[in-house]
């Protein structure tokens, strides 16, 4: 067949597919085999599957995924090397994303679309990953025993008035490592260590395994104030609307509330990097961002997208706009500091 008619017959085929796609998804099914995207996700299945289903509906492209915790997925990607089936790693916390980047598990996103959708301070400096949702780690207090006028900053929780009244989640959790890392970035090591020592001396009881147990301890009267991620508060409030707890936005006259991201990047050995990029671009876009945040009561990473009504009800706040990557760079300093301060 001469080159020209080959060109036209291909063109004819793709037009037929485009038309067919609207009617039956027939051509989409064919391309699904070729264009399948494989995702390793530390974000839970019920949070990602509605988005992936929608993407498949819109494009006909199949998405395969497994979910596990971030550490296990990072180890798995390292062990699999060039044989990995994964095209995308999705995970929570800039500390984990930074770690994966340091291990050489990503390739640059190289996407003007993502750069247009997500502000630079919510993406990797080296272009390896982008944030896709924002979570605030803020104060929560007993509405029965604390007047919000008593609260001001994370640092003030180290003051003697909170002796025996503070609950914390374990320092082993990356969320607290990231919080302390950003404090080191702003306040320096010495001042941060003094504050963490103050927190430890104010603890009502040993640190808890998770944010929900930490808040339940306040409700049970074990302590009066704690530091938690907003979506865990949202979850608890949904299951128990009468729970006598409220959120407080600290550091509003200073650096703002500590925020972190969930996000993702294209794996270094992706078999379908173009498909992976297109999916991440879609997730960063205005249509998907609302749902991506809303499903876990988070804030969209794309600033042009509104928050859900439930989240809006918690009120506006000033967020720390330090590049979230600091959480990764100073993570090991934060771990050592918390260890010295005997924060377990
Ligand atoms: Fe979480």
Protein model, in words:
The protein is an alpha/beta fold and 344 residues long. The protein has 2 domains: 3-134 and 260-307, Periplasmic binding protein-like II (D-Maltodextrin-Binding Protein, domain 2), CATH 3.40.190.10; 135-258 and 316-340, Periplasmic binding protein-like II (D-Maltodextrin-Binding Protein, domain 2). Helix content is 46%, strand content 15%. It contains 15 helices and 10 strands. The chain has helices spanning 3-23, 26-35, 45-59, 70-80, 94-102, 112-117, 174-187, 189-202, 211-219, 230-239, 273-284, 286-294, 309-312, 326-329, 331-340, and strands at 37-41, 63-67, 88-92, 106-107, 130-142, 166-167, 225-229, 245-248, 258-267, 299-300. Strands 1, 2, 3, 4, 5, 6, 7, 8, 9 and 10 form a 10-stranded mixed sheet that branches. The longest helix has 21 residues, at 3-23. It is globular. It starts with a helix and ends with a helix. Mean pLDDT is 91; it is low at 1-32. Bound molecules: fe (iii) ion. Fe (iii) ion is lined by residues 92, 229. Fe (iii) ion (FE) binds at residues 92, 229.
């Amino acid at each position: 067949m001469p080159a020209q008619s080959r060109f036209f017959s291909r063109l004819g085929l793709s037009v037929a597919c485009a038309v067919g796609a609207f009617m039956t998804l027939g051509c989409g099914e064919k391309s699904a085999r070729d264009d399948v995207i494989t995702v390793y996700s530390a974000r839970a299945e019920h949070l990602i599957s509605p988005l992936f289903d929608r993407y498949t509906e819109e494009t006909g492209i199949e998405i395969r995924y497994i979910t596990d915790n971030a550490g296990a997925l990072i180890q798995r990607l390292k062990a699999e090397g060039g044989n990995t089936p994964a095209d995308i790693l999705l995970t929570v916390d800039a500390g984990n994303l930074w770690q994966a980047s340091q291990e050489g598990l990503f390739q640059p996103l190289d996407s003007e679309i993502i750069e247009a959708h997500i502000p630079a301070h919510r993406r990797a400096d080296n272009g390896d990953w982008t944030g896709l949702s924002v979570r605030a780690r803020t104060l929560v207090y007993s509405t029965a025993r604390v007047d919000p006028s008593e609260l001001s900053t994370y640092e003030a929780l180290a003051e003697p008035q909170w002796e025996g009244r503070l609950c914390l989640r374990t320092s082993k959790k990356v969320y607290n490592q990231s919080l302390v890392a950003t404090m080191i970035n702003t306040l320096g090591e010495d001042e941060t260590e003094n504050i963490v020592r103050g927190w430890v001396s104010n603890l009502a009881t040993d640190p808890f395994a998770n944010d929900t147990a930490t808040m339940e301890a306040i409700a049970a009267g074990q302590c009066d104030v704690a530091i938690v991620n907003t979506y865990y508060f949202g979850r608890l409030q949904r299951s128990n609307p009468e729970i006598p707890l409220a959120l407080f936005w600290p550091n509003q006259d200073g650096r703002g509330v500590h925020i972190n991201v969930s996000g993702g990047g294209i794996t270094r050995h992706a078999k379908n990097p173009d498909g992976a990029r297109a999916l991440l671009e879609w997730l960063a876009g205005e249509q998907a961002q609302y749902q991506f945040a809303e499903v876990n009561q988070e804030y969209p990473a794309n600033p042009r997208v509104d928050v859900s009504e439930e989240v809006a009800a918690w009120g506006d706040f000033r967020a720390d706009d330090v590049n979230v990557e600091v959480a990764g760079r100073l993570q090991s300093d934060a771990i050592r500091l918390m260890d010295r301060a005997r924060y377990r």
